[in-house]
UniProtKB/TrEMBL annotation, chain A:
One of its GO terms (cellular component) is plasma membrane. It is found in: Cell membrane; Membrane. Keywords: Membrane, Transmembrane, Transmembrane helix, Transport. The keyword Transport applies. It comes from the Bacteria. Belongs to the binding-protein-dependent transport system permease family. This is Peptide ABC transporter permease. It is a multi-pass membrane protein. GO terms for biological process: transmembrane transport.
TrEMBL record, chain B:
SUPFAM superfamilies: MetI-like, P-loop containing nucleoside triphosphate hydrolases. PROSITE patterns: ABC_TM1, ABC_TRANSPORTER_1, ABC_TRANSPORTER_2. Pfam families: ABC_tran (PF00005), BPD_transp_1 (PF00528), oligo_HPY (PF08352). This is Peptide ABC transporter ATP-binding protein. It is a multi-pass membrane protein; Peripheral membrane protein. It comes from Nakamurella endophytica.
């Protein structure tokens, strides 16, 4: 129970830290961003928006604590402000449009590359000391590839040269989004290349990690005893070695999620994919601070939620964590 | 180094414990081909950044009419849409990319060190708070944060980028270093420094930090990769000063000038390739360091496939094995169930093979307990694994026979069994109890399952009901409530776990059980209970035991016969009671004098001077000679053979025979050695 409450506390604190960071960031910008902003949007912003802008950068008569409380108040009402670049669309609306695309693409790809990478890592680790080890340098190369660069290569070959897949976007322009066959087919077609880029460039990370954990686990006495007992190779590999090796890998998965997701999101830019990664790019280009804040908030909360899921999976897999400590 | 490895194999530790002496030993990892490739590649890139502009004098920003031309003699890597030379950009760009990577990583590593060392060393509340901080930084997605931070600083120069990257990438290193510091803190040499009143920071910098060089280097290098990738991402998004060339910046221009649509692969392929190659080079170097930090990874190099489960090439003609006379009509203990004949095990670790077990011959009779004693490094554990053929590379059986007698009288040389036959034989006829039950039980499986799967593997026809009945029966045999078959290993006490191990060994009713220090990890009371349990089970189920331990007093109580090993050889073998009454070998005498008996008369404990020998460099003649209080002039010259002495009782009882490998009992010197008064038995040549 103590371990559980510690984890819960950790999540609450991390969420609080991320949200507070989000509050502080615009206030750290040097110079007078509000005047710059007002110059850029000359006459387009209503008085409400100007006030919101001043509030965002802390240029109100209230002291910082009052501002902080107001910030929380707005956040709890789901009010993430209004985007500058697509004024007057609320940030929440833009996020609501982009999030399903990102969750679908990045979420599925991250899980996919973890599962495939881990499975390959099990096999490569099991066959340590054989020719399979020759894959290690290849895999290190894959882990070092910048996501977006590999995305460029993939686009060049499969979209521009071969014309196998569409170049960019989330679905064919002109189609009405909905749960119908032609739309869904189009979505899958458009997701194929970004997915390929993300999975290939993140798979090596899991493969190497799992391979090393397998090698370490295979030296354990319980694996030796399993071999002595005459168990089948399949059972030793899965139930004795891989299952134990998976636990640290899963813990690593949870912790690396932020890193991986951050990298994958940039891939959306190459494909003009309608997710929040592309929105982040546009927000940064247009210095759309409310949108940046909103995106950072959403990404952090999603990663935290995914972490929580990984934690729960860990508890399911490891009986030792289930004891009341 | 080789002996270190051997000691690791013997003791089953990962070898991390005893290494303060080789603080920079990890540099040796650079010898591996993979690591060397990484180093060479990295050096090339650094040279490119340093010297490249000297050789390629083209201005990377100079515009020309030669637009979008593919690689040619004039432009080795072609040109951009404004006719700029790609190679010149690549070389110029390497400076910013590498500089950002290394400087940001250096700053991040300093942060990691400060926070990791402080958290690990100070412990308590500081540790809680600092760990919390680094975990928070780890979980928050760093790239979006960096993007927003640099987006917030519109005219972000290289320095600002470097600071932002280092501020968001220290957390992983801090976590790793904290864990390492925690484990170092408990080591003897740190404790000693604390006890002598050295200041905290002095201990951290003088005692702890130098022992972390490998991990710090590994952390630094992986942070470099991360920093280069982050810089490239930022540049690609146009968040850095894109008029300053960097690899990411080149990709920004390529992407924004539709290089893809022009098919100008020479423009966007090289910068990404450079980033990936630098990353690969650093990862390969890190691989070498990792293998140093974790010796288990290192040993994975040694080819495992060939050596494992492969029968020895030489096969004895079966009639020779059949007709062999082994004193089958022993009146007291019945026939020999296992005969170890001239068994030799070597560790092949690059140079000369090291003999851990040297020409060992022993006989185990049905229902008997044969005790094998010796210091660590004497080869006794290697022997245990070799007997069950569970030895792992680099250990290799290079000679001898392991003759097992089936109940029907036929014999099999276990060394000739191939993989399948061996798997079928082992556990059915011979099982093993490992030293640490904590490590030998799979922590994720219920104990009942771990007994059941052995049944399932060997008795495929047995139904689930019958199997679970057998599991219950086995647990009862070792004195565990059958209800607990659903328990996980961590829910049991140390003694109970060791009982489970015994139950697992008994699963298929084997004739022989090899026990490798089965009670070493237990407290004295539990030790006693386990030993009593083993004896009562043995009397009931009539299996024979090879009991291996360094605790001679335990062996004397438990065993029928005792063999003492030194430097891989059996130096004395005798019935337990005779051995206790009058050990012959000076080493046995020393061993016996260094343990108190569990019961019986008190005596002065003396111990043996000196340390176990280095098996790679054994002294000439008798290997115990340098430590022997009774060595004389022939000892360095003659290697003493194992002599069979006539039984003291005068009968021809094989179980009562004594053997000793010591020149004191070699007839030629018996008189001169001055031990004649102790009534040395008459010598019989083998």
């Amino acid at each position: 129970m103590r371990a559980f409450s510690r984890r819960a506390l950790f999540y609450v604190l991390t969420a609080w830290a991320a949200i507070t960071l989000n509050f502080l960031l615009p206030r750290l910008i040097p110079g007078d961003p509000v005047s710059r902003m007002l110059d850029r949007f000359r006459g387009q912003l209503g008085p409400e928006a100007v006030f919101a802008l001043r509030a965002l950068f802390g240029q109100t008569s209230n002291n910082i604590f009052a501002q902080y409380l107001q910030y929380w108040g707005r956040l709890l009402h789901g009010d993430l402000g209004v985007s500058f670049t697509s004024y007057p669309t609320p940030v929440a609306t833009i996020l609501g449009q982009g999030l399903p695309w990102t969750l679908g693409l990045i979420g599925v790809c991250t899980v996919l590359s973890f599962v495939i990478g881990t499975a390959l890592g099990v096999v490569v680790g099991w066959r340590r000391g054989t020719w399979v080890d020759g894959f290690i340098p290849v895999t290190t190369f894959l882990t070092s590839i910048p996501y977006f660069w590999f995305a460029l290569i993939v686009v060049y070959f499969f979209a521009l040269q071969m014309h196998w897949f569409p170049l960019s976007g989330g679905y064919r322009p002109g189609l009405r989004p909905g749960w119908n066959g032609s739309f869904l087919t189009s979505v899958v077609e458009h997701a194929a290349l970004p997915a390929l880029a993300i999975v290939v460039s993140s798979i090596g990370y899991w493969l190497l990690g799992m391979r090393n954990m397998m090698v370490t686990t295979l030296a354990e006495d319980y694996v030796l005893l399993a071999r002595a007992k005459g168990l089948s190779r399949g059972r030793i590999m899965t139930t004795y070695a891989a299952r134990n090796a998976l636990l640290p890998s899963l813990a690593g998965f949870a912790l690396s999620l932020g890193f991986i997701v951050g990298g994958s999101i940039i891939t959306e830019v190459v494909f003009n994919y309608p997710g929040i990664g592309y929105s982040l790019f546009q927000a940064v280009q247009g210095q759309d601070y409310p949108l940046m804040q909103g995106i950072f908030f959403v990404i952090t909360m999603t990663v935290l939620a995914a972490n929580l899921l990984a934690d729960l999976a860990y508890v399911l897999l490891d009986p030792r964590t289930r004891v009341a400590v | 180094m080789t002996t270190n490895l051997l000691a690791d194999v013997e003791s089953g530790t990962t070898g991390q414990e005893d290494r303060p002496a080789s603080r920079f030993g990890w540099l040796r990892g650079f010898r591996s081909a993979r690591t060397l490739t990484g180093v060479v590649l990295m050096v090339l890139f650094v040279l490119m950044a340093l010297l490249g502009p000297v050789f390629v004098r083209t201005d990377p920003s100079a515009v020309s009419d030669d637009v979008l031309s593919p690689p040619s003699g004039a432009h080795l890597l072609g040109t951009t849409h404004t006719g700029q030379d790609v190679l010149a950009q690549l070389i110029d760009g390497s400076r910013i990319s590498l500089l950002t990577g290394f400087v940001a990583a250096a700053l991040a590593t300093v942060l990691s060190l400060l926070i990791g060392l402080a958290a690990g060393y100070l412990g308590g509340l500081s540790d809680e708070l600092l760990s919390l901080l680094s975990n928070i930084f780890l979980v928050i997605p760093s790239l979006p944060l960096v993007v927003i931070l640099t987006g917030a600083l519109p005219e972000a120069g290289s320095l600002a980028i470097i600071i932002v990257i280092s501020l968001t990438s220290w957390a992983w290193g801090a976590r790793v270093l904290r864990a390492q510091t925690l484990s170092l803190r408990k080591r003897d040499f740190v404790e000693a420094a604390r006890a002598s009143g050295e200041s905290t920071w002095r201990i951290i910098f003088r005692e702890i930090l130098p022992n972390q060089t490998a991990i710090v280097a590994a952390t630094f290098l992986s942070t470099v990769i991360g920093a280069i990738l982050t810089q490239a991402s930022l540049a690609f998004l146009g968040l850095t000063d894109v008029t300053q060339w960097s690899w990411g910046g080149m990709l920004y221009w390529a992407q924004n000038s539709a290089a893809l649509n022009y098919g100008a692969w020479w423009w966007f392929v090289p910068p990404g390739l450079c980033i990936a190659l630098v990353g690969t080079a650093l990862s390969l170097i890190n691989f070498g360091i990792d293998e140093f930090i974790n010796p288990r990874l290192r040993s994975a190099h040694i080819a495992t496939k060939n050596a494992r489960n492969k029968p020895m090439a030489r096969r004895l003609p079966s009639d020779e094995a059949e007709s062999d006379d082994t004193g089958a009509s022993s009146p007291t203990h019945g026939d020999v169930v296992l005969e170890i004949r001239n068994l030799t095990v070597e560790y092949q670790t690059g140079g000369d093979p090291i003999r851990a077990v040297d020409d060992v011959s022993l006989q185990l009779r049905r229902g008997e307990v044969l005790g094998i004693a010796g210091e660590s490094g004497s080869g006794k554990s290697t022997l245990a694994y070799a007997i069950t053929r569970l030895h792992q590379p680099p250990a290799r059986i290079t000679g001898g026979q392991l003759l097992y007698t089936h109940p029907d009288g036929s014999r099999t040389d276990l060394l000739t069994l191939s993989g399948k036959a061996l798997t079928a034989f082992r556990w059915e006829e011979m099982s093993i109890v490992l030293q640490s039950a904590m490590n030998a039980l799979n922590p994720l499986l219920r104990i009942g399952v771990q007994i059941d799967d052995a049944l399932q593997a060997h008795r495929p026809a047995m139904g689930a009901g019958a199997r679970s009945a057998r599991v219950r029966e086995l647990l009862e045999l070792v004195g565990i409530d059958p209800q607990r078959s659903a328990a996980y290993p961590h829910e049991l006490s140390g003694g109970m776990r060791q009982r489970v191990m015994i139950a697992i060994a008994l699963t298929l009713d084997p004739d022989v059980i090899v026990m490798d220090e089965p009670t070493t990890a237990l407290d004295v009371v539990t030790q006693r209970q386990i030993l009593q349990r083993i004896v009562s089970l043995k009397d009931r189920l009539h299996f024979a035991v090879i009991f291996i331990t360094h605790d001679l007093s335990m062996l004397i109580e438990l065993s029928d016969r005792i063999a003492v090993m030194y430097a891989g050889r059996v130096v004395e073998e005798a019935p337990a009671k005779h051995f206790y009454a009058r050990p012959l070998h000076p080493y046995s005498q020393g061993l016996l004098a260094s343990f108190p008996t569990l019961s019986g008369a008190k005596r002065v404990l003396t111990g043996i001077a000196g340390a176990p020998p280095d098996l790679g460099a054994l002294p000439s003649g008798c290997s115990f000679r340098p430590r022997c209080p009774r060595a004389f002039d022939r000892c360095p010259v003659v290697e003493p053979p194992l002599l069979l002495l006539a039984p003291t009782g005068g009968s021809e009882d094989v179980a009562g025979r004594r053997q000793v490998a010591c020149l004191l009992y070699d007839g030629a010197d018996a008189g001169r050695s001055g031990t004649g008064s102790t009534g040395i038995p008459e010598k019989v040549q083998v």
